[in-house]
Every structure is written in structure tokens, then in C-alpha cells.
Amino acid sequence: MEEQKLKIMVIDDENIVGKRLKPALEKTGDIVETFEEGEKALARFDKEPFDIVVTDIRMEKINGIEILERILAKSSRTKVIIITGYATVEVAREALSKGAFDFIAKPFKPDDLRAIIARASKELKS
Amino acid sequence: MSIIIISSDSKKIEEDIAEKVAAVMDYNRLGPKLLTDVAANYQIDPVKLREALETTPSVFKNMPSKNWRHYLSCIEAEVFDRLLKDNIVCWGLPAHLFVTGISHVMKVRLLASGQRIGKIAEQKGITVDRAEKLIADELRQRKKWSLAAYNLDETDPSQYDLVINLDQIDPTEAAITITNAIEYRKFQPMTYSIKCLSNLALAARVNARLLESMVNIKVQARDNSVVVVTKASNRQKRKKIAAIKELAGDIEGVSYVEVHVKKNILEDAAENPY
Description:
The complex is a heterodimer.
Chain A: E1 7-11, H1 15-26, E2 31-35, H2 38-47, E3 52-56, H3 64-74, E4 79-84, H4 89-97, E5 102-105, H5 110-125
Parallel strand pairs in A: 1-2, 1-3, 3-4, 4-5
Helix pairs in contact in A: 2-3
Chain B: E1 3-8, H1 11-25, E2 28-30, H2 34-42, H3 46-54, H4 65-83, E3 88-91, H5 95-98, E4 105-111, H6 113-124, H7 128-150, E5 162-165, H8 171-181, H9 191-211, E6 217-222, E7 225-232, H10 237-249, E8 256-263, H11 265-271
Parallel strand pairs in B: 1-3, 1-4, 2-3, 4-5, 7-8
Antiparallel strand pairs in B: 6-7
Helix pairs in contact in B: 1-8, 2-4, 3-4, 4-9, 6-7
């Protein structure tokens, strides 16, 4: 039986992040959509929920913590992974308290993110 | 899957509460017995290690600054090595001062000055006023030590995630409060905090190795790369860089070493007095 593909959303206002992560994450056969604006990502999520959301924190208009809260309010099963270039203990603890699945500081290797996604996938299937 | 670091101005209280918490959580214990392992692994007299945790450097006490820094760095390296294994209650060591920036480490400070005043007055047969003064002197000494060693005041409550006054909360209630608090999701390990801890552990290993033969060393690690900042005179610069690269590069887990040398004005002046 064919394994079900994961639907992954990547939100980062830096265009290069989505461009680099999309092919890296698609290697495992999963479906990846990238967004540079939080509102557009949330609108897309309203139409169709995603299994995993990878979001940056510092973005204009809507920040990553707000996206985390709004995604989990819409779909509590979705795993939200926070990526940031401004990691601190306080922000990391806030993200986890608000339900983030994991938190990783930029720059990171695609393999690091793939390992987190593999864990998230395992939890989604259990 | 987290780490609890307990500190107090009383070693006995620290140990009592830490034991209670470790028993309830079924966590591993990391206490002052570790100093025996540090002594064995780094070939240091255990008496000197204990002394380094109590006193600031002084030529009169036969504890030169160079040795003091080295002893502390060995304790740090050994503590970090154990903390990488997770699920630990740590006490009786200055881990609360050097394990910084790790979100899955919960630091607890236990206050018990009130009850200690009565006990000390009774044990030593002195007045309450005199006992109060003794405790105040002890706290001043700890503040002085922690500032000299880690540039942090260990008596400052804002350094901790949880502060419990044992004059108001009994030890069993305190242990329950700690075990409940560590269950908060914010204290669970995450990729970021695990990486920060392993970076600190690697930096501590390199620091301990370099301080064995050098002074003025600061080490930072990221993944398998380390950056060492040091001081040297113009004449010594190349030799020191080569020595650091050789020593640090030899340590397990290090794949790249970068050395930044600041000018040692005093040495330069001594070498070129005119």
C-alpha cells in the first residue's frame, strides 16, 4: 500500500528559504507549498488544512507565534515547527508553551528539518 | 526529559530537596560526588576542586587564578557531559551559573535564611543577631565568588525560573511544586535547546583542555566548529594559534577551529620596552 504523502506548508518572508526548503522537503515525496506572507498562508490553510506547517517568527503583519496560534485553533492535529534567526530561551519557551511541535534556529541543515518532520509524521500516524 | 538545577545558600537543603525531586521524577542525580570523577579524569587533587568552588583566586591561599579557572573549567566540562544524557536533577555544583540559555533546563533557587538563622544560633550557641550576620557574610561571599567565576550574582532571584521560600513552604510541598513545574511544556527539550546544550558541552571540553596550559581563553562552539578568542603578543601570536588549533582540533567532536587573537598590550610592552 502506498504511504500517504504529507502536506507541508512553509512560511517565510525571505524568498530564499522557501526556494531552498521546497526541493529539499519534496525529496521524500511529500507535497510542499511555500508562502512569503502569513495572511496568504492562513487563507490557503482555511481552504485545505496541512499536516505540517513550518513558519518563521519575525515577519511583517503576522508573526510566527500568531500563525502558530491561529493554525492550532483551526486544526489541533497539525504540527507547527518554528524556524527563526532570532532564537532566545524566552521565544523558544513561548513557542513550545503555545503548542509548537519543535523549534529550530536558523541557519540549519535541511537534514535537521527533515528529521523533525519525520518525528512529526510518526506522531501524526500514531 | 528535562533538567532541573537546584541551588540554595544551604548545601543540606539543596541535597534534601534534590533527592526528593529525583525520587518522585525517577531522574538521575548529579551532585557534588561528581568532583571525584572530575579529579580522576583530569588528574586534579579533589581537595583543590572543592576549594575552587568555595574561594576566589588568591596567591595567599595557594590558588592562583590560572589554576582556579582551569579547575572550574574541568568541573564545567564534566557537568555538561552528564547533562547531555537528560532527565537529571543537579545540585551542589555551580551548574546554575554556567548552564545558560538552555530552555529545557529549569533553575530553582531555595531560600531558607529564616530557618537557618535559628539553627545556626542553636548549634553554635550564639545570638540570633550574630547568626544573621554570619548568614549575611556567607551570602556576600557567594555573591563575590559567583561574580568572579561567572560574572553572575547567584543570590539574585531573577537568575532563576522558580524561587521557593522554605520559611513558608515545607520541603515536601517544595518538591511537589518543582515536579509540577518541570512538566510545563516550555521546559521540554526541543531541537534548538538540545543543540545549544551540545554546543556548550563542546565549548566546555575545548576550554578545559586549553586552560590546562593557557590563560585568557574564551571558546564558543556551533555544531562541530569552535571559535577561540585569546590574547597574545605579536611575537607569540603564530605560536599560540598553532598550539590552540592542535589542542582543540584533537578533541572529539571538533572538525574546525578558528582562533581570534587580541593584542596583549602588557606582553608587547614588556617585549619592546623602548
